[in-house]
Amino acid sequence: MIEYFFSCPYCWQRVSILIDSGLTRFEGIEDCEVCCNPISFIVELESGQIVSSYVEKVQ
Pfam families recorded for this chain (predicted)? Predict the structure, then answer.
């Protein structure tokens, strides 16, 4: 598992999610652990390392 840190697009606090390092792509919606608003994620991985990510508010 990889712990991915990012800034919440609602409250700007630093939060994290866990991503399975065996995946090549993670897409999903998770609630911010600080403000509880929903956040949409797309994270691309290669060889167990994050190579790109996109985080945005859920409309």
Answer: Zn_ribbon_21
7 bridge partner residues? 14
Containing structural domain, residue 43: 2-57
Long-range contacts of 46-52 (CB under 8 A, 24+ apart): 48/2, 48/21, 48/22, 49/2, 50/2, 50/4, 50/19
Structure tokens at 36: 């509880």
In angstroms, the Cα distances linking 34 to 12, 17, 53 are: 10, 12, 20
- At 47, the pLDDT band (50, 70, 90 cuts) reads very high
- Structure confidence at residue 59 (pLDDT): 82
Number of domains in the chain: 1
